[in-house]
Structure formats: structure tokens, C-alpha cells
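User: I'm putting together a small comparison set for a docking exercise, and I want a reference complex before I start. The sequence is below, and the ligand is pyridoxal-5'-phosphate. Could you produce the 3D structure with the ligand included, as C-alpha cells?
Assistant: Of course. I'll restate your input first, then give the C-alpha cells for the complex.
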Amino acid sequence: MARINDAVLLAWRKEFPILAHTTYMISHSLGAMPERARARVREYTDAWAERGIRAWEEGWWEMPITVGNLVGRIIGAGEGDVAMQQNVSVCQWVVASCFDWRARRNKLVTDALNFPSNNYIYHSLERAGARVVTAASPDGMTLPVERILELIDEETALVSVSHVAFRSSYLQDLAAITQRAHAVGAMIVADLYQSAGAVPVNVLELAVDFATGGSVKWLCGGPGAGYLYVRRDLRDQLQPAATGWMAHEEPFAFAGGPMRYSRDSFRFLNGTPNVPGMYAARSGYEIIDEVGVPAIREKSVRQTTRLIELADEAGFRINTCRDPRQRGGVVVIDVPNGYAVTQELARREILVDYRPRAGIRVAPHFYTTDEEIEHTVAEIRAIVGAGVAA
Ligand SMILES: Cc1ncc(COP(=O)(O)O)c(C=O)c1O
């Protein structure tokens, strides 16, 4: 059964040009470009060239929501509940700016495995009154959920967590954290960048208040297309300070201030959106949705398990959880001179990356063959065995 599924998944390989000549184990960083994205970008330039200014009313204006709907299908959001932004950092700013950090409830709980950009933004809010409390990771790779839960209390306004940690692929228990946040009247923002498209996630079932993510990685959508999900029943009460004219109820009235927020997800937008980025990103979303995240996850668990076995056989240290329930789509292999090994792998047409204090991040995706898994570890072994210089 697994073999039949794999044949269906591997049939997609011809849709990704780079796979013809490269062992592509880096979809946690930049997913492979689908061939059809070329035509999509061409659609954008054709519309710009042929339709000119009319392109705005013929689709461009609505794109943050129509394209957001494609992401919504992957993360379990309702129609109209996802707004496209330029990147996750912007999304996080929009979310954080919905809160009054001078209020008594001014605690923001984050964790040491959260993406640095998010934590930089939160700390900058300290000047506005926020009290940022960070759950420490005991080993830099994992974070027992209790360490986050014990920090969430009646003074907490917002809890922020990456569903899957970028450094170690540690898979966090979002449901437990969301329940705790809601039990004390706090909200939660989940960064899904390293999970959406690799690990099943359903924002409606989880009942998270906000979710952010981008398209560069598992969604194979390229840069410039971040997404922000906001729980529909919260919309009316949220007034993001990070705003702009597209979020106005009547943007083309060009009214003076103060702001009158739109009642739909336009409310969370700001200025002119990244139209070419959204054109480029759509193909990836459509493919991931068609392949199906459960099938992607099943294959990922099988192949990451095999990667760990092979790394064990080679005597390499693994900085990823062995229990797949605590692991996203990446295996982190820690070898001496990891960065130099990564560069030598690239010379051999094997693409992976290196993160300080973690190791070499290796990630199969639905288009990866079992032979590529074996080949990658065999080449790491050969390079380490030959003693590559730092
Ligand atoms: C979990 C996570 N969040 C956020 C980011 C950064 O997102 P952006 O560059 O869109 O702000 C990354 C990118 O590496 C990430 O892995």
C-alpha cells in the first residue's frame, strides 16, 4: 500500500525541474519550484502588460483573500479567514499590534525555540509595556510542554509558539497550549511556517486565535507570500495598530483619520500587497492541497525514520526527536565541521543547510526518493570520513 502511495507522490517529480539534476533535501528552507509557477508569473506580467490598471479590479485587489483561501484549505481555515501578507514578520507585527501592552494583562509568553524574528518583535514591545516571558529549552532542541504551560496565567495576553521549531524540527503540542491559554483568557498565535504542508494542522479544530506562516518552505510557493489567519469571531474586537489604507472600510474614500476598520479579513492588511509573489505562490498551494498533507506526513515519517537509522549506523549525533509524534519534517544531523560539510554536499549537487548549535538540516518532501535518502547519508559519511576542513 505504501509503495502505491509513493508511486503517486513520485509522479509529481516531473513537475519540479530542479529534481532532475539535484538531490533536493532542503524543502524546510526553500521548497522546489513547481514548473507551472513559471506560467503563473507570466500570467502576472501579461495582466500588467495587457490590462494595465484594470488588473486591480480584475483580481489583483482581492488576491490577498482569494490566494489566502488556497492556504486556508491546507491549514483548515474557513473561506475568507486568511489574509496574505508579505512575510511572517509582518504578520506577527499585525498580531502583536492588536493588544494594548499598557493594560494590566500585559504578559507575552514565548519560547526559546520560537523563530528569532518573532522574539525580536516581542522584545521591541517592552517599550510599549509588554512583559515578555520566555520558556527555556533544556537542551536547545526540545521544549517539554509543561515549561510553557506553567508560564501562562491570568496576566497573560498572548502566547506565541512555533508549531514546529525551525532549528530542531521539534513538534509542539499546540492543542494543550491553546487550551491553557484560553482557560486563563489569553490568546494564542501559532507560527505554522515549519508545519503547514508537512504536518497536518487544522486551525479551526485547534481553535487557535491567530496563525502565521509563509510559502517559501514546504508549500513550494517562493518568497513574498506570508499568510495570517485570524479567528473569525475575534475580528470585530481587534484593531491592529500596524495597519494601512487597504484595511479601511472604504479605502477609495481616501478619508482622513482615524481609522475605520474593514469588517472582513482586509482588516488585517496594510499597504499595496505583493501581487507577483502571490501569483508565484499559488501553484505550490494547489499541488500541496492535491497531494494531501496526510499522505505527505505519512511519507515524511517513514523517510525521516530511515534517515535517523542511517545516521545512527554512521555513528552521527541526531539533534531531532526520535519519536515521530515530536518531530516535524526535518532530521538534524550533527557532524564535525557541519557547515563545511554542507558546502561540500552542495558541490556534489546535494542541497541541505546548516544551523549553528544544531547541525545539518536534512529534509525529504513528498517528491523525495528512497535512493536520495541513502545517497545523502552516504555522501555525508564519505565527506566526514575524508575529514573535510572547517
Ligand atoms: C518558523 C519560522 N517562522 C518565521 C520564519 C521567518 O519568516 P519571514 O521571513 O517570512 O518573516 C521562518 C523562516 O525561516 C521560520 O522557520
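The first helix runs from residue 2 to 10. The mean pLDDT is 96.
User: Thanks, that's exactly what I needed.
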